[in-house]
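Lecture notes, continued. The same structure-token format from the folding unit now serves as the input rather than the output. Read the line below as a description of shape only.
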């Protein structure tokens, strides 16, 4: 895995988690790593186990030159749509770095420019560049922790397990109990949307 794309030592990598969920925020992280950073097993967060992600989180936080994490919640997702909410989350994470990076590398193929800072979109970048992989881990672990918190409020949806993704169990709970304030009302929560009282 590569350290830098633009070969500038303060390059920031950013990624998001939770874009395809029915409930909870879309969460993004931005990370600037030192050029010599190495962490065994660091990869796209989707390829890592929960225990591996949780083990990597404090290593990334302790060694990063800086990092930021930002949630964008369902009300905002419904207002501006999920794509724009993903961009907003990444921008929010970049603002929390405390210092403006000279270049940004983004996982995926679309991004809204962050001020006048040049950027590159890299498809499957979380498997190619360490800073994007680190951002993917932080976005996922912070979002998972949030979903585990709100699970306590609405345990019937089992968010501690499914994290808000559209599993059969989650959709069955929606069928039985309806939606919550944490659900994205602009999403198709059930195939028979009109039968759901929201």
């Amino acid at each position: 895995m590569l350290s830098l794309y633009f070969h500038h030592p303060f390059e920031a990598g950013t990624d998001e988690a939770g874009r395809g969920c029915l409930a909870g925020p879309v969460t993004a992280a931005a990370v600037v790593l030192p050029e010599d950073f190495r962490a065994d097993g660091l990869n796209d967060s989707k390829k890592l186990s929960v225990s591996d992600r949780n083990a990597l989180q404090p290593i990334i936080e302790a060694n990063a030159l800086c990092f930021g994490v930002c949630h964008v919640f369902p009300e905002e997702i419904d207002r501006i749509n999920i794509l724009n909410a993903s961009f907003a989350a990444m921008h929010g994470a970049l603002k929390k770095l405390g210092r403006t990076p000279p270049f940004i590398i983004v996982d995926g193929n679309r991004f809204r420019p962050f001020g006048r800072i040049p950027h590159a979109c890299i498809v499957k970048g979380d498997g190619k560049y360490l800073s994007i992989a680190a951002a993917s881990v932080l976005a996922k672990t912070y979002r998972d922790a949030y979903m585990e918190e709100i699970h306590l409020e609405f345990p019937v949806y089992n968010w501690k397990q499914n994290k808000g993704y559209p599993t059969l169990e989650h959709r069955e709970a929606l069928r039985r109990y309806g939606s919550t304030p944490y659900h994205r009302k602009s999403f198709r929560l059930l195939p028979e949307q009109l039968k759901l009282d929201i």
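Point for the exam: Confidence is low (pLDDT under 50) at residues 194-198.
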